[in-house]
Amino acid sequence: MKNKLQRIFCCYIVFYALYSVSTRFVPTAVLWEGPAADILYKSIIIGGGILSLFCLYVLRNNRKPDTQTILLCLFILVLGVSSLLNYKYELAGNILGLATFASQLILFYFLPKILTEDRLVRCLQFTAFYTSFFWNIGCVTSLWQYIRNIHYTILNPEGHRIRQGIVDGRLFGLFSDPNFAAFTSLILILLLLFTIRKTSFFPLKIYGWTSIVINTCYIIMSNSRTIFIAAAGTILFTVVLITYRQYRSNEEVDLGRFFIQSAKRGLIALAAMIVVYSLIFFPLRQMGQMMEPERAVNDMVREDVDADNFTNNRSTIWKNYLSLYKEKPLFGFSVRSALPYVTDNYPDSYLAKTQYVTHNGYLSLLVEAGAVGFCVMGAFFLMIFLQSLKKLRHKETAGENYLFFTSLTVSILIFMMCFHDIFFTVNIETMLLFIAVGYLHCANKRSRVAQSA
């Protein structure tokens, strides 16, 4: 029964990842528009809710909850209070968002306690393989579409015509948003690198490296500055962590040599990143410029990414949401009440007219859960960070699994600085983030027990 339940968990993880990335792929998003999309979404929520109840049942005999679990329960309680305080605006949506968050949190955060480490690793390997196979098709088609210039603009799921050419800033291709698409490629690269390290099956290694090349090409041609920052930050962090791990395996750590070696390796990694970017971006851009259609000087020129608007309107969005936050500073607007509230009370405001979301996961947390929820979740992540730091300071070195989950966590946390909906929606970042911090918590806890024994 236990093995069967673990296989069900793994199948759900793969299905969840495929559903999440399919919503960013225009053909499937259009295909599933209407009742089909509603059925799939509800299947994800209901299935996750049932499995989260199984998690609680399996863990029912565990000792009293630790501090992190108490903080997460407290955060759910804060969201419940916020939903009640905002009952006039999207009460059903807020309750659904709360239920979605709670079920995902329970399922993914406690998954490393339910699955053995080997089973969890294999589950993520299956996720990397199936998801990348689907995603590779979109990346290859998008790149080919750009090179051949089949469609200089394409229709997104809402029926709006959007630019797909890199000449004007970014390659949409078959994806509804190049930023989310590029970050999907980035986390798939991390998963594929992890899979390559864990498998001895040569054809799978060849497939993994081929997929990494394809996704790297799309990341570069998306021209997403957010993903470049996330990729650079992840590379630098991983280089420093690997260097520290190597030095920590010695009897003594020479901090001076460690910092020098980390800086040298970090610069080499960034230089390699710039070289790869240049070798792919400029030749393909030249091909696109040679084949682009004739147009007026100002035809389809992006005005939101010029030198005077470096943040792509994000700074304006953030300022307006910070002003809105002051209306309900303690418990916030709950999951889905902010835009309905501002539309009813300030119909002429910037947010009411544009209906922009926060474009910042941390700001979303502050606006939706208020200062109380923000501090509770902040304390949760701070405890994970401090415990991980304490583990790394001891002679015991971090294994490859620990290194992978730490790098994955850092990558998603960087991505959250410019994008929203990490906590309260169904997406692959939510799944991987809470699985990763759940694993780190379990590993840190085992390390503390071993040190005290």
Provide the descriptors you would attach to this structure in a database record:
453 residues, mainly alpha, two-stranded antiparallel sheet, 72% helix
Topology of this protein?
Blueprint (H helix, E strand, L loop, with lengths): L1 H21 L3 H6 L3 H24 L8 H19 L5 H24 L2 H32 L4 E3 L5 E3 L14 H21 L3 H21 L2 H24 L6 H37 L22 H12 L12 H8 L4 H5 L6 H33 L6 H16 L12 H25 L1
Antiparallel strand pairs: 1-2
- Strands side by side in the biggest sheet: 1-2
Taking pLDDT < 50 over at least 5 consecutive residues as the criterion, the unreliable ranges are 296-301
Average pLDDT figure: 81
Shape: globular
Strand content: under 5%
Over the alpha carbons, how many angstroms does the gyration radius reach? 23 Å
Question: Roughly how many Å apart are the termini?
Answer: 33 Å
Helix and strand run: HHHHHHEEHHHHHHHHHH
Q: Which class of secondary structure composition applies to the elements? A: mainly alpha
- What is the count of β-strands? 2
**Helical run tally:** 16
